[in-house]
Amino acid sequence: MFVASLSGVLMHATVRYLSADLRPFELAFFRNFLALIILAIPLLRLGLKPLHSRHRGLHLLRGALTTASMLSFFTALSMSPLVQVTALSFTAPLFATVLAIAFLGEVVRLRRWIAILIGFAGTMVILRPGVEAIDLGTGLTLVSAATWGAAIVVTRVLGRSESSHTITLYMALIMTALSFVPATTVWIWTSPDLYFWLFLMVAFGTVTQLCFTQALREAETSVVLPIDFLKLIWATMIGYALFAELPDGTTLFGGAMIFASAIYIAYRESRLQRSRIAYDK
Questions:
Q1: Are 220 and 56 contacting, i.e. CB atoms less than 8 angstroms apart?
Q2: Which of 13, 157, 164, 170 is the most exposed place for a label (fewest CB within 10 A)?
Q3: Three-class SS string for 98-128?
């Protein structure tokens, strides 16, 4: 999780760097297309088996939500400070919990409701509505977090019957196709020296996914997820070193509030999951 937190912020910093020459929509397409090529190599031995699914509509919905989240996030990175975008991205689990209550009928007790309210209070600390105007980059970050939260809910539904290979492959295929359409409207043929940075962006993203997934396999969510808070530290350091961005105390404090609430929600869900498994046994 330590490596995942660092490589994730490095990918975001690479996107911010490349956005000076390439449009965010084009960057999102390259991210998906090159990742699909990397993903296809180990899946070749499985043939067409991962494409067998009875829930293609849900796969399409998840792909559309994830694409919307990525396009919004990449655009936000080109507009807003790295640490602010990172801090607000922690709200995704909060949106996922609220949406799971609304659409999956999940029951949330008082303590998790308090955690949700604290998380959204942290968002208000960062945004300071009425004191500072909410810019487009900030708004897009929240749109990204909300759509990613919705994608998490759809993933929970798919996970009941679909394999991880099927979910991952459909996501890569759909996101590549959907991100290509907006990319064509702003397409710029890049200089050859930028391809190195494009591959580096994809490499950082792939390392992040692999390490994050493996971390959750090696230990419980409540154990490894707190390390993800290092993203805020990395974003502060990298944002200052590369882009001369120095966050104020309210951004860091609000980010800590959001992250603490997300950690508690993950901890409670982990405890409840263990209780359900023990009950079923």
A1: no
A2: 164
A3: HHHHHHHCCCCCHHHHHHHHHHHHHHHHHHC
Contacts of 59 (CB under 8 A, 6+ apart): 53, 158, 162, 166, 167, 170, 171, 174
Q: How many CB atoms lie within 10 A of CB 65?
A: 20
Give the pTM. Answer: 0.87
Give the single-character DSSP code of 44. Answer: G
Structure confidence by residue, pLDDT tens digits, 81-135: 999 999 999 999 889 888 988 888 887 788 888 989 999 999 999 888 766 777 8
Band of pLDDT at residue 48, cut at 50, 70 and 90: low
> How crowded is the C-beta side of 199, counted as CA atoms within 13 Å?
7
Which are the contacts of 248, defined by CB distance < 8 A and separation ≥ 6?
none
> Virtual CA dihedral for 20, 144, 60, 50, nearest 10 degrees?
80
Alpha-helical (H) ranges within 21-55 are 24-43
The angle that helices 110-127 and 92-104 make with each other, rounded to 10 degrees, is: 140
C-alpha span between 199 and 205 (Å, rounded): 10
- Where in the chain are the domains? 2-106+134-246
**Residue 128 Ramachandran class (φ > 0 left, ψ -120 to 50 alpha, else beta):** left
Residue 65 CA to residue 166 CA, distance in Å, equals 17
Task: Tell me if residue 179 falls in helix, strand or coil.
Answer: helix
DSSP codes, 201-240: HHHHHHHHHHHHHHHHHHS-HHHHGGGGGHHHHHHHHHHH
